[in-house]
Amino acid sequence: MESCGKVPASPVDLVHLERQTMGDRQLQSEVLNLLAEQARSTSLRVGSASPEERAAMAHGLKGAARGVGAFALADCADALEREPEVEQHRKRLEQAVAEFLNFLLRWEQQP
To answer: What's the pLDDT band for 1 if we cut at 50, 70, 90?
Structure first.
């Protein structure tokens, strides 16, 4: 189910993240921060990228996001990968990145 453009309950499916990391909070932090770096980089570069470059960046981000349970972000990346020339997909991806980064800030403040 595609969730790009819809507001998810949480930008990250924490049950999925728990399964993928076997409940290791330090590992969760590492993988979420790696995704954050990739998401920031993609968001900064995608606006000036060619359609081919947009599709390639979106493809990489999609896989990384799905791996940690950031399914809304992955769906937005998938939409941009499929139709890299559609400006609305780029805008939605940038919004999903911002939502993910805000989630990460809040998540890291939890004990």
So the answer is: very low
- Please state the domain extents for the chain: 14-108
Contact 84, 93 (CB under 8 A): no
Q: What is the DSSP letter of 22?
A: T
- Give the model's confidence band at 2: pLDDT under 50 very low, under 70 low, under 90 confident, else very high: low
Which CATH number, 1.10.10, 1.20.1740, 2.60.40, 1.20.120, labels domain 14-108?
1.20.120
pTM for this entry: 0.92
